[in-house]
Amino acid sequence: METRTSSLLSLALVIVFSFLLATSADVHGNFIQCLTSHSQNTTSISQVIYTQNNSSYSSVLEFSIQNPRFLSAGTPKPLVIITPLHESHIQVAINCSRKHGMQIRVRSGGHDYEGFSYVSDAPFFVLDLINLRSISVDVENSSAWVQAGATIGELYYRTAEKSKTLGFPAGVCPTVGVGGHFSGGGYGLMLRKFGLAADNVIDAHIIDVNGRILDRESMGEDLFWAIRGGGGGSFGVITAWKIKLVPVPSTVTVFTVPKTIEQNATMLVHRWQYIADKFDEDLFIRIILRVINSSEDGKKTIQASFNSLFLGGADELLPLMQKDFPELGLIRSDCLEMSWIESILYFAGFPTGASLDVLLDRTPLTRRSFKAKSDYVKEPISKIGLEGIWRRFYEEEGATAEMILSPYGGKMNAIPESETPFPHRIGNIYKIQHLVYWDEEGIEASIRHIDWIRRLYSYMTPYVSKSPRAAYLNYRDLDIGVNSNKGNTSYAQASIWGIKYFMNNFNRLVHVKTMVDPTNFFKNEQSIPPVSPWWKKRGN
């Protein structure tokens, strides 16, 4: 009897699985047919469609996957990849995916920390914007139009090509795509002087759920507000940003001063917390914490690297440091003077003398599996608290971990928390990025390292922001909450993670979502949900 029941169950599973495969194949085939039949230029769109049978499919998919833990055989793959050449391809893709039930994932640079731009459990396609990356710099008006598929490295390069005294306050990693970076806020080393990337966006182009191409005027101020820090993927497909370029001096100064525990790192990190957000706004000093080999054989120690950008010359910097942070002991030989664009190469880890052309390369220097989390600190962590962090870094998995402490203050204090969806402004001393890397393949290594960073995150609870424990959208973290995988996420469920990213701005984001995408077409595991009218909730 048990054997017969088992056989019937196996047969049922085979039938269900076969049905799902057939259904998926039908959706896939109908979607492809829709794309070609509704495109104005059939030849043009056929050249940018990659199905799983295409010989280039794997290389196109993997080229912009920046986290190898999402390259495993068990990771869901898109049925189709589309690399549009112009906006009409995106309009057709949206209309066909709505018609045939294919979920859309939009990829700019592929740096989403949880792989949202190229992974989904539902039948889906990837809209890869890699071909939409033109950049037009207007030096006279200190502005630029940047297509969403461009990287911030390409933006920096094209800006410096036109002007030595204009820059932009975006991130450190040059292969990050501007589409996701700007829409999530976009933090960089000039945030204390100029705020976030999103704070310097002055117009945008977005294609909405109905396939309309909208600019700031036609989308309205509510939607324009939402996409500057609220994550563009909830509201449409952002195709371009207009940004305000910022003035940079002809000479900037950088330094990296490493200190170990034996060199009073604990005291210096503790002291830094009291002054980092109060420095002159031209001065940014972050701390990168990691484990290194001690000078003693077989021993490990903690290294705190004080990593800085100063918008001015060394002769201006040294008196400031002597006044505000003499404990670090900065001297003239620690300082390197260079142009702002050269500092981009310095912080990205390129060797001295590297050509600026490396900023045009979309391949990162390293590509390692990682898991990240974020925190905000409002009160300095005690020395005892810091020593507890060191103990966790001495564990086996901590050998490949980093903690990056980035100071706020300056311009960040001057911008109201409701100005954009990004709410983490005044009251925050610094932001923490928790990172752990690993090179081993397989699920066991992933579990082990992810468990480690979760334990570290748990340890940090008493020392970081509370009610809510705040997080940064661009350091995406599924551990803090997820939407329903059935697509009918409630406000209450989404608010679990939404309040942590957006705090009091979450309600307004939900309101905008409900106006512009009421059927929740643009969705992922942490997308903003729409709210159904009360009469629909009651089933009337």
**Radius of gyration, in angstroms, nearest whole number:** 24 Å
Q: For the terminal residues, how far apart are their CA atoms?
A: 48 Å
Count the beta strands.
18
Quote the average pLDDT: 92
Proportion of residues in β-strands: 15-25%
Largest sheet: 7 strands, antiparallel
Q: Low-confidence stretches at least 5 residues in length (pLDDT < 50)?
A: 12-22, 534-540
Structural class category: alpha+beta
The percent of residues in helical segments reads 25-40%
What strand order characterises the main sheet?
15-12-14-13-17-18-16
Overall spatial form: globular
- Please give the count of helices: 18
Summarize the structure.
With 540 residues, the protein is of the alpha+beta class. It contains 18 helices and 18 strands. The protein has a seven-stranded antiparallel β-sheet.
Can you walk through the features of this model?
It contains 18 helices and 18 strands. It has helices at residues 2-38, 42-46, 57-63, 87-100, 152-162, 178-183, 191-194, 216-219, 221-226, 265-275, 314-324, 340-348, 383-393, 411-414, 443-459, 491-502, 506-516, 534-537, and strands spanning 49-51, 80-82, 103-107, 124-128, 135-138, 143-147, 166-167, 201-207, 213-214, 237-244, 246-247, 252-260, 283-293, 300-310, 336-338, 369-377, 401-407, 430-438. Strand 8 (201-207) and strand 9 form a beta hairpin. The longest helix has 37 residues, at 2-38.
